[in-house]
Amino acid sequence: MAADLQPVLALPEMVRMMGHPSGKRERLALQRPRHRHAPILRRACILHQKCFHCRHARPRTFKVEEPKMAAKPLPKSLYAETARAALPTPPLPGDRSTDVAIVGGGFTGLSTALHLAQQGVDVTLIEASEPGWGASGRNGGQVNPGLKHDPSAVIKDHGEALGRRMIELSGGAPARVFDIVRRHQIQCEVAETGTLRAAFNRPGAAMIESTARDYALHGAPVSYLDRQEIKVWTGSDRYACGLIDRRGGKLNPLGYARGLAEAAHNAGAKIHGGTSAVSLAREADGWKLATNSGTLRARRVVLATNGYSDALWPGLARSIIPVFSAIAATEPLSEAQAQGILPEGSVLFEIADLTVYYRLDAHRRLLMGGRSVSRDTGDPIDYRRLTDYAIRLWPTLKDVRWTHFWNGQLAITQDHYPHLHEPAPGLIAALGYNGRGVAMATATGAEVARRLTGTGLDELCLPVSPITTYPFHRFWPLGVTIRLWWGAMRDRLAPAA
Ligand SMILES: Cc1cc2nc3c(=O)[nH]c(=O)nc-3n(C[C@H](O)[C@H](O)[C@H](O)COP(=O)(O)OP(=O)(O)OC[C@H]3O[C@@H](n4cnc5c(N)ncnc54)[C@H](O)[C@@H]3O)c2cc1C
């Protein structure tokens, strides 16, 4: 244990919520820096966390202000009904030690665990609810290649050598997912049917034309689709043009997350659901994670909490915007109805200020995804824009029944690149896939595993950057609301292509 840290409270006491004089509910930290206050002031200091005397020594222990003490059930998504069964993942049983501790059981954490365990590393993953509970078990199931930025921009932003490695990692990310699914025989309705992007207005069409040129320049297997061609691929006459990238595809994401968890478990990883990390403290020879069900000591720690990041590490949650995205799903469509929608089975996302994405699943259900209100909701009223838009695309869906409505949080970064951070020795954070996490979080997990098994920064396929926080982060819901309103205006007023 580091010299300036000493345990001050037993766990049950620690988890007690305290009334704070400021009116804010605040938790007690497991440890506090040693200082010279009289006991009564020391206690006040623990409560207020603002003490002048120990303000500078404090950042060695980090706590969660709004802890998730109870495992939350899965949202009532389509996947919760259709995904393969989950492996039992009991909570961390008391105090344990491991080489690598991973916080977060989504694609990032599970892929890291799998790739480490396969190399014989002793790895333990803790997840507040169950593997796949976060965005990984709720997303659109689109396995999309590439980053948000086109390849030339990636090279411009990161230089020739790293830029090319990033392009290779992200372009090959779907193939990595399909390979994992095949190798571990994961039942998740996978199909390698390609990713479409489509535009309905002039700015969107210009972006698609430029992306098509840029991807072709870098040898990606993409084809530009004109108005007639995109109509054939989508069954809708809304679009001016499109692009098909044959590397993409689709899957049932909760099934994939559960399959990853089982593959990691079979390779030797320990996976504990219902286990919330409530504080992270530096010790002499590693780290100590306090959880609601025990303590986990580890030489190295990976934070893989993405859009559900909390105060476990200072500034991490403020380095991303945890935006909500929403999905509505229909009952299985008739064959006649389905024939007119994405006949090749591809997935699609629109190039517009406000992205809409959709696909058919293995049972001919249409899954329509897009912007969401900034709160958890399963109320069909909150999904009216999506369901109305589907009818605008395919009027034959007028009388179709919408059966499932769910949403979740993903992480947007300021530069729209995924972020790898190493804010302290033996600590890695990986997050911020900007809506491309099915393939990219899987690939990033493999990169984190490479880093932890000795790969140098100059060989990694992602940059390691310092944590930079969004200014005025606490106002993000307001910012997102304004951004959505502004985006809707721009999409409406942009000239037709
Ligand atoms: C509605 C929706 C649709 C999307 N559609 C697509 C798509 O079609 N294609 C695509 O590529 N991407 C899509 N995304 C994005 C994609 O799902 C994410 O980028 C990806 O799943 C991120 O994986 P992750 O493992 O980093 O995070 P998550 O899957 O969010 O996992 C983070 C986990 O950390 C856990 N956690 C947080 N704090 C703690 C703690 N203190 N202790 C223990 N556990 C903790 C949470 O419980 C959570 O399970 C979508 C996202 C959403 C929400």
Automatic annotation (TrEMBL):
<dbReference type="GO" id="GO:0016491">
    <property type="term" value="F:oxidoreductase activity"/>
</dbReference>
<dbReference type="InterPro" id="IPR036188">
    <property type="entry name" value="FAD/NAD-bd_sf"/>
</dbReference>
<feature type="domain" description="FAD dependent oxidoreductase">
    <location>
        <begin position="99"/>
        <end position="451"/>
    </location>
</feature>
<dbReference type="Pfam" id="PF01266">
    <property type="entry name" value="DAO"/>
</dbReference>
<keyword id="KW-0560">Oxidoreductase</keyword>
<protein>
    <submittedName>
        <fullName>Glycine/D-amino acid oxidase</fullName>
    </submittedName>
</protein>
<dbReference type="InterPro" id="IPR006076">
    <property type="entry name" value="FAD-dep_OxRdtase"/>
</dbReference>
<dbReference type="GO" id="GO:0005737">
    <property type="term" value="C:cytoplasm"/>
</dbReference>
